[in-house]
Amino acid sequence: GDEIVNHLYDKDASDHVLGSGVFGAVIAHKDHVYKLYKDRAYHGFVKHVQKNKGNPNLPVIHAAGKIKGTQIKAVKMERLKPLEENHPIHKYLFDLGKWGMHTPQFNASNGKQLEHELNNTSHGKALKEAYPNFHRTLSDIAHKFPKGWADLHKGNFMVRPDGTHGGHGTPVITDPLAS
Description:
This protein is α+β, with helices and mostly antiparallel strands. It has helices at residues 2-9, 40-51, 90-93, 111-120, 122-130, 132-144, and strands at residues 17-20, 24-29, 32-37, 61-66, 73-78, 81-82, 94-95, 103-104, 149-150, 157-160, 170-173, 177-178. It has six helices and twelve strands.
């Protein structure tokens, strides 16, 4: 926790903020990132990731904890790359539509609905056929968090640049739920 706090007070820390939202922020540092958050759903996801180490479709978390004297939690994880439109999985997750908007293929509002969509719709079945482990991972998350708000926008899927999937890299689920 103290390493994170010290990094935040670095005069150049604002140059390293990769993104932020209502419940958290992501800060780059060398070959990893810190995610600071105050979100029960994300905390549950972190615990799920820690229990499923080795799953290629989940991020590698190096450390997790709470910043002393605050309600803010933090994780140190591998640094991933954005999911680009040319990645083969993109068409299974997003519909570009006539305006080129990245509309999620899955319109579920919670985990229970997401699990249903993943297993009972044509786009869910197509994802399962093309990316069975990714589908199983997302289904497991949906099943484990049936009341969690499904937060499936483009920024919550990233890529591990490992050369797989035709050189595009392994797709990684980074933040599929919100409180």
